[in-house]
Amino acid sequence: MQGKIAFEEHVAIGETLAQTRAFAGDSGQWDDFTRRILDLGNERLEAMDRTGIELAILSLNAPGVQRIPDADEAMDVAKKGNDRLAEAVALHPDRYAALAALPMHDADAASLELTRCVRELGFKGCMVNGFQQVGDADDVRYYDLPEFRAFWATVAELDVPFYLHPRMQVPSRAPIYDGHPWLMSSPWGFAVETSIHALRLCGSGLFDDYPGLRICLGHLGENIPFGLWRIDARMAFSRRGYRGKRPLGDYFREHFHLTTSGNFDDSAFRCTLDTIDHDKIHFSADYPFERMQDAADWYDSTDVITDEQRRRFGRSNAIRLFKLDLE
Description:
- 42% of the residues lie in helices and 12% in strands.
- By secondary structure, it is of the alpha/beta class.
- It has a single domain, classed as TIM Barrel, CATH 3.20.20.
């Protein structure tokens, strides 16, 4: 399919590059991976051309500024990353758009940077890489906490999507992974960490306070669609601490948009299609952690969807979500 729009597509700057090394494969692949994640020119654009991706909405790589405990340093890196993305969009406005990186140490500071990126730089929303480390490596903050309500008020006022991207849990808070570090990363721990964070948002009353919020998740929903029925069913017996006014599944189905990034599997896709409204399903690749070719080859050929749905999920839904000036 030609004309696809992808929006879990990553870029590094010098200050965040080393954070990706654990996800780049063996040491022999590092040089190639480094070139791809830093590149915003011909190599990326040619790969988009080959795979029918018209527009990539770029974001700073994970864990990015969420891994920087010092608030001032994180703000400096966020601004540098956002300015780099803005330069790429200015050079290739027909091929790139951008999502803001945000330091989430302080709701007001994050709100200011998001406002700058949206109103001055023309960004389409933000991508935040899970919890924020604050002060030291073991102090982490999740965004359902009351201290972040002022930030969510800004997101609602700007009316832009918030993409919640995975990251690994810090070792001091994850003894269950002891002796099995492979589990902490993308094979399993990414989905565990991100799905719990998403469910915390659903259970916090956030969407009652700001009913227009739109949250994006990758990898076909970080395993939540498979478990959503059981979550609601069992919460009939265990709702202690739950602050939502409606069933959790109502919030998830209403407020969450899911992408195909890095999960190119027909069975998982069927489950997502059966669970989530079709206006909230989108194509994405997860480049360069995944190959654009693999993402496009699967998406363009899967018989799980019709050609009309392929265009809807691959293009039309994203145009509406991000209010793009495209047909």
